[in-house]
UniProtKB/TrEMBL annotation:
One GO CC annotation: archaeal-type flagellum
Organism: Halobaculum magnesiiphilum
Major subcellular site: other
Locations listed in the record: Archaeal flagellum
Designated name of the protein: Flagellin
Recorded family membership: Belongs to the archaeal flagellin family.
GO biological process, one term: archaeal or bacterial-type flagellum-dependent cell motility
Keywords carried by this UniProt record: Archaeal flagellum, Cell projection, Cilium, Flagellum, Membrane, Transmembrane, Transmembrane helix
Physiological role: Flagellin is the subunit protein which polymerizes to form the filaments of archaeal flagella.
Transmembrane spans: 12-37
A matching Pfam family: Flagellin_arch-type
Record GO terms (molecular function): structural molecule activity
Amino acid sequence: MFEFITDEEERGQVGIGTLIVFIAMVLVAAIAAGVLINTAGFLQSKSQETGQQSSKQVSNRLQEVVTTGTVNTTDNSVESVNVTVTQAPGAGEIDLENATINWIGPSGTETLTHSTSSATDWTFNTYQVKNTDDSDTVLNDADDRFNVEFELNDHGNGPADAPSNLGEGDEVTIKINTMAGATTTIRFTVPESLGQKQAVEL
């Protein structure tokens, strides 16, 4: 016996097949959309994080107010250097205790950490000049001023691992690197004549 398929049955089978294909396409599109949304969200969060880090590296910098040197009058050399710093415009909180400093002078390059750290033999000290709160090493206000002190060897009277005193005409570059990754570069030259002076502006 032959089984005859009517036009209505053929149309019904075609309709069911089309419906199955349509549902499969919707599911694939929904999965793809979910993946795209998740990926877009991840990329957005990463770009925001990267943008914030880049912003901190640019803005969380220090600004030099003045740099001075204490003169050893015995041989007319600079025995210590004081750099007064404040927040750069737009900078956030900066903790000097977490900073590292590169000293590039006539005797070579040294990397210093704060005196509260034992990571290096020659360290730098910080002193409050003007502070709006009780923080010992944190610049968190535009009016804050701190001294960053570099004590030199001073013929054996200073830190043993510090470089020798600076002579007349010596040039030094200081790079202060904050925890956020921002770098402040300070350059100075010792005056050609230190005679009859106890302190000089560098």
